[in-house]
């Protein structure tokens, strides 16, 4: 910048010339603080000055506001040291100078007096140095003594000279700044006043512009670029506001000049510091809007570059260009179409060139985010120019286009001299680009690629793709679909991955066009399919694309079929199994209903739809967990595929049971697709994820298919019926719809859909109709045949091998029911049963597989003859005393092996018998107990003739017979009890016999026991607490048989030893003294032995006698061999005796048992042993006998309280 | 005219423009503006002081319209596109519009029946946008 503040020099010119060099050098060496008015921050500035000789013309005239040429300081130089000379000439000269200054109102002056020692030495009559300075001060500087400075020996290198220099410079700077502050302040005030007048009618923006620019210039001159920029920005804002106000209807008159039609559009010019041409136009008020803007921006640009802020230039440039276009529109300035495009294009390139000029390459690359906008804008504009001038077409421009081009080029004018020599100037580029189609293409591609490259470099992929897309459009216009395709596919990717539907549709449409031109039929059809189902398109367009597919499909050609993704045209919504379990047996029908929502605009008739299935030979039923997606009602709902829902949580229930007791230990939710969700969602990578859905359409050559033919695919349902073959698990893999040459393929089905086919072996089961089968009565059993995979043919029969215990009863008509697998009655048919000696053959009706055949059969199980053992051996709790298992062997037609079926019959009765004795008379009691749930009629109980017919309702019937025999009593009696019975509720039913065999042994009575209780001597009655005499007499009634008793021969007398025992269990009696003892009983009839004891009654009343028991006593030295027949019934017989005949209590039984068990547990030692008699061998006469016991003497008081 | 968009993870949740003609161009513009939004977000991440400022300001000017951006703390992006000639809308107005959008969006998200990621179909949100559009035009 050549401009510097002007400082005039008057006085001794030679002196000044001598000092000029060091002065200009030293002035800017140190900064000064500049304090500003209006509270602006103080600044440190380096001052420079342009020292010129003083002339009166330099002084500004009244009203001249020019600041650039304004002399800020006037210096008068003199080296006069002689008072005489001073008085003679110098003073006068100075006065003249002062007068001239005063005339122009300038107060910024300085008188510099240079002193040198040389001069002093030469002159003798010199005044003291100070005096001349004082004189000058006195003459000129009243009150402003600082306006006169002295400079000592300025040309010498001495410390004194240095000092005086620095103080002089200091003074100079201070005065300069003071002058600046004063003059600029005044100027600014004037300027503000002018600005305030802007609402007045005659106000002109251009004039004001020039004024404020003057200020800017001064700031620039003072190196205050920031300040200068502020001035321009203020102007910019002011102008912008005026334009906006104009748009709002508030037009200023002066704006009229800016509304003139645009005639020149030669772009920005940034190579000159000041574009004087444009400045002149503005000064003259002839500038157009573009001129003003261009000039303003060029100044701003210059200052910004001074300020080292080139990136702001680019941002401002873009803003400016947009703004200008807007403003022209707003001001309704008429512009030749394309002119603005030219202007913008040139300007963009000019700015870029300017920036490139002041930055190195690496800086440029690092800041391409700032420049890329301009590149793009330039590209766009060139493109629209190309469109306008017919350069983007296959045929090239026509004459009209050429005319336009000529007009546009004319508006560019001549190239500016600055760029004439540069081969890459924007002007040349534009001219060349508009000159021919080829050149245009070259330049356009160059720009596009540069911009795209930059976008990629800074990671703005979407912007790059958008540019690529417009490049593709260009290629399409040029008829070069090959080059366009990649760009389109690239941009499609980002729209797909980010699901922007409208751009997606639009791009896809372009791709369709491109693919059609390229004859890429597969891709074209795929795209068409997607477009046909695209709701963003109009019905007409959709129909068009649908028709494209149908037309292709109907063509007959040899080449391979085309597989398209089914998901583009249809959506699989639901899949439904009938039966709902998706589990069928072999050869059963499985109905699979697909709900497909067709997205096509028109109904499409498909030749067939097939679903390929994958077969695994798994055991059906093992995959129950896998089919979690299948609802219990057999439907599978497919989620609508959308990128948003794909990332939804897939939650499943988690219940954990503890392994020990199967209680719930934890419950929770688990996310099954966590790996997908937790993946870092990087937007940059998500843009680049390849969309493989279009390519992976491999059609599986599954051998197995489900197939439905001639389906019209209008939005609705399709059902496919399919018969399965092999048992196993089938998984649906693909769907494929065939439409002429076109196949629509759904490559994967998710969630996994499976159905199972199983095979079942035929099964026969025989079950009782009632809860228990009863023996002895005809019973119905149910035969159930699950046919499984076997189909029962005519003539098939079941062969039952007969057993004696269980004959099959014939009945006139039996019918069999045939049920389907879902338990529906299919048919009922008669059953014929033939019976031969060994087998019963049941011919079965014809039954299809997987059906159930049911029929009933009557069988009878004979009651087995009772075992001889006494039933009392069995524990009481067991209700069913007798069971009869019957095994039936059945030969089935489907198997070579016989089926063994086991049936259990229960005997409905329980029989007990007992022998009762009264002295020598004997009675037999038979107790028949019904243990079944059925009521029976009972007749013909025989042992004796007894004809009454008791009814047996789960109760006991007791029958008693007396035994009589003549002669010697038999040792054992074999008896048979027989009765007839029939169910009580069926009176006409035949009576069934029931027989019961039993054997009684040792029937005759050997001994009888009598007892008597008498009061004590001298007493009449027995009294409680008084001892009574108990006399027990044992009498042998008959001689025992040989084997019956143990004899001991003592003193020639055959005796048996008997153990007696007196126990009172009811605590009625206290047995005093010995309660048991051993007696020897002579073996002779009617031998009697008496035992006396003392007992004491404990209660009053009729007391039963204490029980007296009798045992055989076997001494320890006796033969250890015990007859086996008696041994076994030793304890048990005694027990049964207790039960039946005696009112023995549990306690006594317990003692007997423990004794017995103790013996049996020990090895046979030398212990005496007792043995019970058989039932009926001992007759106890005391049973049921009572004795009256009176209370003790009545000396007790009884208190009776009556209330 | 005005166009409002709510974007989550670069998927448009809500996009509406008035007038509807030329909608396609706006969609393209908004989609492209995501580049700048992302650039700004990553820039904001670096400058800690700016982290609380959700308003991203003018994303980029074009000849015909201005694109403004706003990003919530959960990185939901809002974009408003305004006609360049619409000078009544200053930075402050745009800022308050974004704040309104954000509030309404928060309400939508609080709806337990709203499935995050689905397009916004809330009538309340729609009416907020409508009133904003009416005011702006």
Automatic annotation (TrEMBL), chain A:
The TRAPPC10 Ig-like domain is annotated at: 762-906
Q: Does the keyword Transport apply?
A: yes
**Tell me, which GO biological process terms does this entry list?**
early endosome to Golgi transport; intra-Golgi vesicle-mediated transport
User: Keywords on this record?
Assistant: Golgi apparatus, Transport
Q: What are the leading ranks of the lineage? A: Eukaryota, Metazoa, Chordata, Craniata, Vertebrata
Instruction: Identify the GO cellular component terms for this protein.
Output: cytosol; TRAPPII protein complex
Q: What is this protein called?
A: Trafficking protein particle complex 10
Q: Which Pfam families match?
A: Ig_TRAPPC10 (PF23604), TRAPPC10 (PF12584), TRAPPC10_1st (PF23036)
Enumerate the residue ranges of region (Disordered): 1141-1178
Question: Where does it reside?
Answer: Golgi apparatus
What's the chief localization of this chain? Golgi
What segments bear the compositional bias annotation Polar residues? 1141-1160
Automatic annotation (TrEMBL), chain B:
Gene encoding the protein: LOC109063540
Q: What is the lineage of its organism?
A: Eukaryota, Metazoa, Chordata, Craniata, Vertebrata
Organism in which the protein naturally occurs: Cyprinus carpio (Common carp)
Some GO term, biological process aspect, for this entry: which one?
A: endoplasmic reticulum to Golgi vesicle-mediated transport
Name of this chain's protein: Trafficking protein particle complex subunit 2-like protein
Assigned keywords, A-Z: ER-Golgi transport, Transport
Keyword Transport annotated:
yes
Tell me the compartments it is located in: Cytoplasm, Perinuclear region
State the family it belongs to: Belongs to the TRAPP small subunits family. Sedlin subfamily.
**One Pfam family linked to the record:** Sedlin_N
Q: Which SUPFAM superfamilies match?
A: SNARE-like
Q: Name one GO cellular component term.
A: perinuclear region of cytoplasm
Supply the InterPro entries for this chain: Longin-like_dom_sf, Sedlin, TRAPPC2L
């Amino acid at each position: 910048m050549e401009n510097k503040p002007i400082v005039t020099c008057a006085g001794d010119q030679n002196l000044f010339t001598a000092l000029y060099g060091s002065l200009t050098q030293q002035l800017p060496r140190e900064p000064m603080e500049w304090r500003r008015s209006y509270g602006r921050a103080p600044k440190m500035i380096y001052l420079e000055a342009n020292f010129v000789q003083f002339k009166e013309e330099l002084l500004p005239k009244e009203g001249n506001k020019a600041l650039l040429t304004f002399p800020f300081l006037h210096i008068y130089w003199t080296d006069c040291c002689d008072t005489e000379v001073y008085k003679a000439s110098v003073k006068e000269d100075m006065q003249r100078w002062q007068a001239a200054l005063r005339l122009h109102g300038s107060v910024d002056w300085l008188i510099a007096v240079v002193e040198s020692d040389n001069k002093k030495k030469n002159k003798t009559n010199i005044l003291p140095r100070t005096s001349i300075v004082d004189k000058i001060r006195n003459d000129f500087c009243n009150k402003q003594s600082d306006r006169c400075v002295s400079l000592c020996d300025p040309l010498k290198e001495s410390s004194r000279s240095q000092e005086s220099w620095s103080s002089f410079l200091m003074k100079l700077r201070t005065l300069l700044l003071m002058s600046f502050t004063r003059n600029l302040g005044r100027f600014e005030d004037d300027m503000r006043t002018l600005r305030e007048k802007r609402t007045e009618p005659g106000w002109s923006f251009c004039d004001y512009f020039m004024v404020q620019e003057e200020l800017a210039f001064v700031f620039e001159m003072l190196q205050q670029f920031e300040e200068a920029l502020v001035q321009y920005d203020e102007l910019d804002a002011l102008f912008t506001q005026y334009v906006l106000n104009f748009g709002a209807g508030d037009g200023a008159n002066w704006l009229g000049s800016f509304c003139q039609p645009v005639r020149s559009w030669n772009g920005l010019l940034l190579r000159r510091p000041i574009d004087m041409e444009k400045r002149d136009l503005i000064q003259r008020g002839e500038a157009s809007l573009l001129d003003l803007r261009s000039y303003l921006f060029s100044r701003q640009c210059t200052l910004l570059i001074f300020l080292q802020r080139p990136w702001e230039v680019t941002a401002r440039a873009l803003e400016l260009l947009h703004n200008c276009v807007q403003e022209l529109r707003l001001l309704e300035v008429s512009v030749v179409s394309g002119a603005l495009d030219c202007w913008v294009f040139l300007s963009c390139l000019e700015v870029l060139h300017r920036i490139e000029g002041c930055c190195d390459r690496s800086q440029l690359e690092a800041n391409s985010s700032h420049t890329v906008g301009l590149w793009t804008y330039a590209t766009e504009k060139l493109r629209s120019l190309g469109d306008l001038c017919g350069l983007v077409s296959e045929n090239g421009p026509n004459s009209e286009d050429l005319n336009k081009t000529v007009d546009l080029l004319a508006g560019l004018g001549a190239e500016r001299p600055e760029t004439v020599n540069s081969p890459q100037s924007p002007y040349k580029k534009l001219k060349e680009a508009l000159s021919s189609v080829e050149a245009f293409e070259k330049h356009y591609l160059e720009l596009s690629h540069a911009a795209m490259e930059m976008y990629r470099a800074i990671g703005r992929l979407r912007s790059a793709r958008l540019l690529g897309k417009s490049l593709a459009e260009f290629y399409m216009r040029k008829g070069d679909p090959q080059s366009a395709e990649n760009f389109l596919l690239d941009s499609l990717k980002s729209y797909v991955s980010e699901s922007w539907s409208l751009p997606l549709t639009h791009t896809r449409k372009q791709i369709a066009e491109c693919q059609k031109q390229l004859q890429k039929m597969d891709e074209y059809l795929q795209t068409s399919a997607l477009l046909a189902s695209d709701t963003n398109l109009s019905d007409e367009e959709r129909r068009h694309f649908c028709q494209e597919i149908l037309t292709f499909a109907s063509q007959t050609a040899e080449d391979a079929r085309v597989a398209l993704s089914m998901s583009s045209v249809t959506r699989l919504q639901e899949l439904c199994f009938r039966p709902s379990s998706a589990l069928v047996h072999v050869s059963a029908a499985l109905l699979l209903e697909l709900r497909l929502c067709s997205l096509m605009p028109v109904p499409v008739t498909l030749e067939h739809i097939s679903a390929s299935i994958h077969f695994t030979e798994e055991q059906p039923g093992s995959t129950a967990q896998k089919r979690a997606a299948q609802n219990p009602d057999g439907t599978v709902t497919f989620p609508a595929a959308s990128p948003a829902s794909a990332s939804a949580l897939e939650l499943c229930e988690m219940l954990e049971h503890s392994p020990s007791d199967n209680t719930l230990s934890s419950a929770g939710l688990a996310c099954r697709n966590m790996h997908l969700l937790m993946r870092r969602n990087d937007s940059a990578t998500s843009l680049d994820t390849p969309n493989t859905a279009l390519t992976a359409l491999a059609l599986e050559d599954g051998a197995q298919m489900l197939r439905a033919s001639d389906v019209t695919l209008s939005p609705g349902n399709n059902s496919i019926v399919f018969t399965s073959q092999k048992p196993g698990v089938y998984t649906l893999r693909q769907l494929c719809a065939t439409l002429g040459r076109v196949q629509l393929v759904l490559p994967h089905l998710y969630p996994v859909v499976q159905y199972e086919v199983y095979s079942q072996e035929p099964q026969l089961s025989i079950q009782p109709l009632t809860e228990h089968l009863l023996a002895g009565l005809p019973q119905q059993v149910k035969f159930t045949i699950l046919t499984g995979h076997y189909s029962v043919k005519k003539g098939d029969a079941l062969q039952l091998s007969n057993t004696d215990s269980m004959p099959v009863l014939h009945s006139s008509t039996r019918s069999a029911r045939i049920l389907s697998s879902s338990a529906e009655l299919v048919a009922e048919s008669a059953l014929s049963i033939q019976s031969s000696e060994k087998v019963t053959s049941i011919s079965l009706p014809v039954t299809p597989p997987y059906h159930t055949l049911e029929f009933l059969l009557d069988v009878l199980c004979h009651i087995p003859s009772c075992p001889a053992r006494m039933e009392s051996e069995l524990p009481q709790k067991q209700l069913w005393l007798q069971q009869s298992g019957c095994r039936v062997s059945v030969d089935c037609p489907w198997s070579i092996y016989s089926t063994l079926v086991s049936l259990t019959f229960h005997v409905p009765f329980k029989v007990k018998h007992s022998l009762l004795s009264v002295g020598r008379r004997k009675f037999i009691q038979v107790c028949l107990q019904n243990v079944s749930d059925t009521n029976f009629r009972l007749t013909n109980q025989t042992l004796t003739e007894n004809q009454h017919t008791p009814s047996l309702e789960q109760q006991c019937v007791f029958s008693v017979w007396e035994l009589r025999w003549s002669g010697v009593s038999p040792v054992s009696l074999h008896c048979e009890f027989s009765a007839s019975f029939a169910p009580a509720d069926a009176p006409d039913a035949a009576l069934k016999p029931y027989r019961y065999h039993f054997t009684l042994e040792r029937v005759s009575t050997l001994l009888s026991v009598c007892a008597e209780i008498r009061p004590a001597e001298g007493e009449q009655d027995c009294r409680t607490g008084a001892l009574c005499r108990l006399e027990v007499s044992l009498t042998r009634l008959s001689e025992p048989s040989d084997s019956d008793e143990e004899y001991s021969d003592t003193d020639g007398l055959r005796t048996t030893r008997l153990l007696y025992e007196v126990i009172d269990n009811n605590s009625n009696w206290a047995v005093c003294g010995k309660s048991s003892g051993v007696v020897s009983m002579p073996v002779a009839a009617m031998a009697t032995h008496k035992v006396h004891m003392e007992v004491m009654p404990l209660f009053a009343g009729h007391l039963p006698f204490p029980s007296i028991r009798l045992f055989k006593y076997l001494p320890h030295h006796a033969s250890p061999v015990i007859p086996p027949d008696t041994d076994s019934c030793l304890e048990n017989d005694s027990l049964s005796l207790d039960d039946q005949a005696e009112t023995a209590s549990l306690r006594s039984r317990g003692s007997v048992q423990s004794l017995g068990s103790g013996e049996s547990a020990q090895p046979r030692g030398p212990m005496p042993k007792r043995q019970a008699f058989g039932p009926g061998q001992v007759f106890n006469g005391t049973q049921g006998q009572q004795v009256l016991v009176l209370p003790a003497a009545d000396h007790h008081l009884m208190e009776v309280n009556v209330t | 005219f005005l166009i409002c968009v709510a974007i989550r993870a670069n998927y448009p949740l809500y996009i509406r423009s008035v007038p509807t003609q030329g909608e396609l161009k706006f969609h393209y513009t908004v989609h492209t503006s995501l580049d700048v939004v992302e650039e700004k977000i990553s820039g904001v991440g670096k400058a800690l002081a700016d982290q609380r400022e959700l308003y991203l300001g003018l994303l980029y000017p074009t000849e015909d319209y201005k694109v403004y951006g706003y990003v919530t703390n959960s990185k939901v992006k809002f974009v408003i596109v305004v006609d360049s000639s619409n000078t009544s809308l200053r930075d402050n107005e745009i800022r308050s519009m974004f704040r309104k959008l954000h509030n309404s969006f928060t309400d939508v998200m609080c709806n337990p029946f709203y499935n995050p990621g689905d397009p916004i179909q809330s009538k309340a949100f729609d009416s907020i946008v409508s009133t904003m559009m009416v005011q702006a035009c």
